[in-house]
Design goal:
Blueprint (H helix, E strand, L loop, with lengths): L31 H24 E5 L13 E5 L6 E5 L28 H29 L4 H22 L7 E5 L2 H4 L7 E5 L7 E8 L4 E5 L2 E4 L2 E2 L4 H7 L1 E5 L12 E2 L5 E3 L3 E5 L10 E5 L1 E2 L7 E2 L20 E10 L2 E10 L2 E10 L4 E7 L2 E8 L7 E8 L2 E6 L2 E7 L13 E8 L2 E11 L12 H4 L2 E2 L4 E5 L16 H11 L3 H13 L5 H7 L5 H15 L11 H15 L7 E2 L3 E10 L5 E2 L2
Antiparallel strand pairs: 1-4, 2-3, 4-30, 5-6, 5-30, 6-28, 7-8, 7-27, 8-9, 10-26, 11-14, 12-13, 13-26, 14-25, 15-16, 17-22, 17-26, 18-19, 18-25, 19-20, 20-21, 22-23, 23-24, 28-29, 30-31
Length: 612
């Protein structure tokens, strides 16, 4: 028997590598790569489901209630007269495109569109799919490039699969035409809801559906809508700058001049101005420095068969049908102007009912220039500017939410508070924009006019929000859509019929089932109040007792009879409180129904951006 001798294995740099398989094979077993890929897909799918359920979820915007901040199913239109592109909402479940009564917001020209063919739809889907795959592959390559070690290969696969999952989600819905958004479902666990946030919540009319609107009323607020504005506890509610920027709506942009030159945009005294496609010239010194001031007013032309000039700014939108019904006085005007003289002035103004607001530029020769912000002829703010009579000046005048402000060459004038101290429901009858010059020739170009949202009291015509408003209780929120004329929101929601059926079934259930299902009634919150009130008059004492218990739970207000007080008297006392508080059971969003804060439009690519 021979003695075995252990030969030490060489170590260190001199160690020779093991010989490779002569057939070029590897140590990996067949099918390992496929199994790893399937493992990565499974992990990505599980992570996607977890993220979707509790962290972040993708939604598609189905309707136009938030247009044009967020677009539902829509068609892209281009005005044949001025070339301005805008969106038109589609009608009904079938997504029918109806163009009757739809007009370009820039020049009120009747809308037209070429229909998308079946081939174009297929190419659109293939294009979306191809972009999704390319982006996912790019993400995978980037992660592998940064983390080259083998443990991170699986991480790269999971991340790229997650990206592909969310992009394909948008691809599968590509023909629906609505924006695809991402919603942070954890946001309101760490931050309280803020007024003017865009939020996602369960529908008060059908808790199986989710809605997206803008939050305007917080717990404890009394909400009114008067003359297009939101009034909170008797005071005007002013939008923060980020929200205001999101809700401006185009009225006119000189970058898109009408091809029909007979459709004059500015009107004034004959021979004292020239209205061209690129600039407006005001001859304020025509005939000498002693000439009277010249002023022109913005005008649009109503389409046939009515025809005629429209000098007021209305709440018209290309997304909806019609020319608008309400006169809007909250406006913003932007322009570039040049003063052709060393003495004289030029002004840009906004007219609202009987009041006039304007920013005036005065040329003072070698003394430079001066900017003045005026209201009804009274100077509110003034500022000196460097002398530059031949250069173009950037001018902006904004009057919104009872705040007047101007910006001239980056210098801010204001803000000036115009709030009168109280608000009355007065329907505006006149609004407009004007330009003027005195003592010199002035030129204006790149003119743009925007209007604020005009909130209507009700889509159905009720004026309750204007007269008394709605009082919000603890944990209750009031929401509005940005497309006020065509939005189902807190102004018009009604108690769904199934709530009464649910309340009746739960109140009459056996004790064990009642304890198990009472949470379904509580989930409807104040929407269950009418049915619960009716139940307090039932013959069955057990049903009456359960109704009292649930009424107290959903309202947070005691109802139980005091000593020697009949139940009917206690209910009457509770109803008097209810009416005095003017609670609105179907018009509020309870706190438990808030689902998250949308933060990003991720599809289509042309509309990718943050939601404000």
């Amino acid at each position: 028997m021979s003695e075995r001798t252990d030969v030490p294995r060489p170590t260190g740099p001199a160690a020779a590598p093991q010989a490779a398989d002569p057939d070029g094979g590897s140590d990996r077993r067949p099918g390992v790569g496929f199994l790893e890929t399937m493992e990565s897909l499974a992990v990505a799918l599980i992570l996607a489901l977890i993220i979707r359920g509790s962290v972040m979820e993708a939604y598609v915007i189905p309707s136009g209630s938030m247009a044009t901040t967020l677009l539902g199913r829509h068609a892209a239109l281009v005005c044949p007269n001025c070339g301005y592109g805008f969106s038109r909402g589609l009608s009904g479940e079938s997504g029918e495109l109806r163009l009757a009564g739809v007009y370009c917001p820039n020049d009120l020209y009747p809308a037209t569109i070429l229909a998308m063919s079946g081939t174009e739809k297929v190419l659109r889907i293939l294009g979306y799919f191809g972009i999704s795959v390319l982006v996912a592959v790019g993400v995978y390559g980037l992660v592998r490039r940064v983390y080259q070690d083998e443990p991170f290969a699986k991480v790269a696969s999971v991340i790229s699969c997650l990206v592909l999952f969310y992009l394909l989600l948008g691809t599968l819905q590509a023909l629906r035409g609505g924006d695809r958004i991402l919603v942070n479902k954890l946001y309101y666990r760490f931050h309280p809801p803020q007024r003017w946030d865009v939020i996602v919540f369960r529908s008060p009319e059908d808790i199986s559906r989710n809605f997206i609107k803008r939050l305007v009323g917080l717990p404890g607020d009394r909400v009114q809508i008067l003359s297009g504005d939101v009034i909170i506890n008797g005071m005007i509610s002013r939008k923060p700058e980020y929200a205001q920027e999101a809700v401006w709506r185009l009225v006119y942009d000189q970058e898109y001049p009408p091809a029909d030159l007979n459709r004059e945009v500015w009107q004034g005294p004959g021979g004292r101005y020239r209205d061209g496609p690129e600039e407006v010239v005001l001859l304020g010194a025509d005939g000498g420095s002693a000439s009277p001031p010249v002023e022109v007013r913005f005008v649009r032309h109503a389409p046939e068969p009515n025809g005629g000039d429209i000098t007021d700014i209305l709440d018209q939108s290309g997304y909806n049908t019609g020319l608008g019904q309400n006169v809007v006085g909250d406006l913003r005007v932007r322009a570039e102007c040049a003063l052709g003289g060393s003495a004289g002035s030029f002004w840009v103004g906004i007219e609202h009912d009987t009041r006039r607001y304007q920013v005036r530029l005065e040329a003072r020769g070698e003394g430079g220039m001066r900017a003045l912000l005026e209201a009804d002829g009274e100077t509110k703010v003034s500022a000196d500017l460097p002398a530059s009579p031949e250069s173009w000046h950037q001018v902006e005048l904004c009057k919104v939410d009872f705040v007047l402000r101007a910006v001239v060459d980056g210098k801010v004038l204001g803000p000036v508070d115009l709030w009168p101290g109280e608000m009355k429901a007065i329907r505006s009858t006149r609004s407009g924009v004007f330009l003027g010059a005195s003592g010199l020739e002035a030129r204006a170009r790149r003119l743009r006019i925007d209007r604020d949202i005009y909130y209507t009291g009700s889509v159905r015509g009720s004026d309750r929000l204007g007269r008394a408003g709605i009082q919000l209780g603890p944990g209750e929120y009031f929401v509005l859509g940005d497309n006020s004329p065509d939005s189902r929101d807190s102004r018009d929601w009604r108690v769904p019929a199934e709530v009464g059926e649910l309340v009746d079934r739960v109140l009459q259930a056996q004790e064990a089932r009642y304890v198990r299902e009472r949470s379904q009634v509580l989930a409807y919150g104040l929407k269950a109040v009418p049915a619960l009130l009716d139940a307090t008059f039932r013959d069955d004492a057990a049903v009456r007792g359960r109704a009292v218990e649930l009424l107290e739970a959903v309202s947070g207000h005691p109802l139980r009879p005091q000593p020697e007080e009949e139940l009917a008297d206690a209910v009457a006392r509770w109803q008097r409180w209810w009416e005095a508080e003017e609670r609105a059971p179907a018009q509020v969003v309870p706190e438990q129904d808030l689902l998250g804060k949308p933060f990003l439009v991720f599809w289509p690519l042309a509309r990718v951006g943050l939601i404000r």
